[in-house]
Design a protein that fits this description.
With about 300 residues, this protein is of the alpha/beta class. The chain has a domain at about 70-270: Nucleotidyltransferase, domain 5, CATH 3.30.420. Helices cover about 30% and strands about 15% of the residues. It is built from 9 helices and 11 strands. It has helices at about 35-40, 45-55, 70-75, 135-150, 180-190, 200-215, 225-235, 255-270, 280-290; strands at about 15, 20-25, 60, 85-90, 95, 100-105, 110-115, 125-130, 160-165, 195, 220. The protein has a 6-stranded mixed β-sheet with strand order 10-9-6-7-8-11, with helices on both faces. It has a 3-stranded antiparallel β-sheet with strand order 1-2-3. Strands 4-5 form a two-stranded antiparallel ribbon. The radius of gyration is 21 Å and the shape is globular. Residues about 1-15, about 20-30, about 245-250 and about 285-299 have low confidence and may be disordered.
């Protein structure tokens, strides 16, 4: 395995002739271990190709919503509401329908979402929000209060079967010194958080998956009363209008759009994906042998 990460230059954000924002990513700033980078590298024919295509170059449309396929009228139709039990058409038996909680962690400002996946495969988005200056512990306490309140739409007298999908950073100590988010979730909800590390290439696949899912109008339904979700999908989750705003390598870091958008992206990636990335073990062993030559790319 290589002894140090290769040096790469961060490309200055600029506009392509086609009107696309182009920027670079430095793997040293991606908070990945050498082992994680090595596994990603096995998906490319050469290590140089990995640096060029995965670590260095990325394009994003200028000033448009991330989810081009969202239609506010279509995707808020036939909203079923929150269901605790459903009848399985294949067995005619009643089944409990789990509640899905999604999280994007951000210190004092995590975003959350409440979802369900119907037996038909349709994903229902009940609610999303990013409370102002509210820690994860307080958000979970609020959710638990809703689950126990007979007047709440999320009330369940028999307790929910919960599935929790979260940002992979929940497995790392945060800058506020409040511990691992995954541990907080385990302690308060009794559920082990599932997470997927959104590397640059996987994040692009995830955005494509989100657009494809909304393009199939019977695959996702949004609560028409959740104005936050509708606003985020229509306009707040978007690419920057100014090329200089992309220096932070994010979609648009201002406001709640990117955080709630990430929650939606994580849940869709987990539940609507049909195939998983396969690690080439042979190539992994080859790349693990010896010191890898350092490359420097960029303009």
């Amino acid at each position: 395995m290589w002894k140090e990460l290769p040096k790469t230059k961060i490309l200055k954000p600029r506009l392509s002739p086609e009107g696309y924002l182009i920027y670079g990513i430095n793997p040293e700033e991606a908070q990945k271990t050498k082992e994680q980078l090595l596994q990603i590298a096995t998906q490319y024919d050469t290590y140089e190709e990995f640096l060029n295509e995965h670590c260095l170059r990325f394009t994003a449309p200028k000033g448009i919503p991330v989810v081009q396929t969202y239609d506010d009228d279509i995707h808020t139709r036939d909203y079923p509401g929150v269901k605790t039990h459903v009848i399985d058409p294949s067995t005619k038996q009643e089944r409990r329908l789990p509640l899905i909680l999604g999280f994007d962690f951000g210190g004092t400002n995590p975003a959350y979402g409440i979802f369900q996946k119907e037996l038909t495969g349709r994903l229902v988005i009940h609610r999303t929000e990013r409370p102002e200056k509210m820690r994860l512990e307080a958000i979970i306490d609020m959710l638990l209060t809703w689950f126990r309140d007979p007047l709440s739409e999320f009330y369940n007298k028999t307790d929910w079967d919960l599935v929790v999908i979260g940002d992979h950073t929940g497995n790392f100590e945060n800058s506020h010194g409040t511990g691992l988010a995954a541990e907080v979730i385990k302690e308060k909800l009794g559920v082990t958080m599932q997470s997927h590390q959104m590397t640059a290439d996987i994040a692009k696949e995830a955005i494509d998956l989100v657009n494809n899912a909304f393009a199939k109008h019977n695959q996702i339904t949004v609560n028409p009363r959740c104005l936050t979700t509708r606003s985020v999908l229509k306009e707040e989750w978007r690419y920057p209008d100014n090329v200089d705003d992309l220096a932070n390598k994010r979609v648009d870091s201002k406001g709640r759009g990117i955080h709630i958008g990430d929650v939606i992206k994580y849940v869709i990636w987990n539940f609507l994906r049909t195939q998983k990335t396969v690690i080439n073990e042979t190539k992994l062993k080859q790349l693990s042998k010896g010191h890898v030559k350092r490359f420097s790319f960029g303009r």
